[in-house]
Specification:
The protein is an alpha+beta fold. It is built from nine helices and 14 strands.
């Protein structure tokens, strides 16, 4: 059964533990790109057709799914991409493809009122946009109104109460944190530049349903002309860490990759990068520092000290997975 433990947002904001020691805001901040003027209302981007609360993408936006996803307070997420006419994403190894200028990445966070019956509707909280202009990724957050008819630009962030019924029929209630622009930039950086995190080729390299047919997602993106042609067998895969039939070691590493590696890799923020951790999935175990810091890692995840941003409740299932994985080493 899922068990949520509320974490003090004030403690997270002030302490900012990063496994071994705190990190100051000066260490995290990089310049916020300002090459894109964001619209005040989300509807100006024509992302959805019909009633926007139904989240039905318009023909210009394509669905992106991930085999492993970042945990954010048990929220559901819809990811979309729009490319300029005639442009393509280009393969760049197993990581994020090269996106052309003018690309719009959309991620919307919502909760089903009752996870057992999607027809009972949902509560949409926020939509985050990444727009690439002049080679830089610009970030913005849009907060949905109570009537679910519009979302408005909000770069300051705030907290809101969310209630829903989970798959087990239990009433859940959490304080959801909508990040401010600085928080978005803090996580979405690599080599001191703002970057997308989730939609890597290895994380999109799995079978999805499109038009009622099962197809490899990368093959589908190639078939509709928005991903360049290459041999998909060249691309690695990252497993779904929620799939209990998958090898425990792969599940554990996949969880660390998706929930921790954006901070804990050599090209991330200066402080976490300097600790020597490297939780990327492809990194050899001996080079991750997992083996020599097992107790410390277990301590911080059990105490809710990590992750630094993005959650206000502990992912108890994720913590259990990490403990099980580390104990197996």
């Amino acid at each position: 059964m899922k068990k949520s433990i509320l974490i003090s947002l004030f403690t997270i904001a002030v302490s900012i533990p990063l496994l071994l020691e705190s990190c100051s805001k000066d260490d995290e901040m990089i310049p916020i790109p300002e090459t894109e003027q964001f619209e005040q209302n989300l509807s100006a981007y024509n992302i959805y057709q019909g009633e926007i609360k139904d989240l039905i993408p318009s023909s210009d936006f394509q669905l992106l799914e991930l085999s492993a996803s970042l945990f954010v307070n048990y929220a559901e997420k819809q990811r979309l991409v729009k490319l300029p006419d005639g442009e393509q994403m280009t393969m760049n190894g197993n990581g994020s493809p090269i996106f052309p200028n003018g690309t719009i990445l959309v991620k919307t966070f919502y909760y089903f009122n009752d996870e057992r019956d999607a027809t009972l509707g949902k509560k949409i909280i926020e939509t985050r946009l990444l727009i690439k202009n002049e080679g830089l990724w610009n970030v913005a957050t849009y907060v949905w109104n109570e009537s679910q008819t519009e979302a408005s630009l909000d770069l300051d962030g705030f907290d809101t109460q969310v209630n829903w019924i989970n798959l087990s029929g239990n009433n859940r209630s959490i304080m959801y944190h909508v990040p401010n622009q600085n928080e978005c930039v803090s996580c979405h950086q690599l080599n001191s530049e703002v970057v997308p995190l989730g939609p890597t080729l290895r994380n999109m390299n799995f079978e999805v349903m499109r038009n009622g047919t099962a197809i490899n997602q990368l093959a589908h993106l190639q078939s509709i002309g928005i991903l360049n042609d290459f041999n998909i067998s060249q691309i690695n895969q990252i497993p779904d860490y929620n799939n209990e039939s998958t090898n425990l070691a792969e599940r554990g590493r996949a969880y660390l990759d998706m929930n921790c590696a954006h901070c804990h890799n050599p090209s991330a923020w200066s402080k976490p990068a300097g600790k020597g951790y490297d939780f990327r999935f492809e990194t050899e175990l001996d080079n991750t520092r997992i083996l020599d810091r097992k107790n410390k890692i277990k301590e911080v995840v059990q105490n809710g000290e990590m992750p630094y941003l993005g959650t206000t409740v502990i992912d108890q299932e994720g913590v259990d997975l990490i403990i099980q994985y580390i104990n197996s080493l």
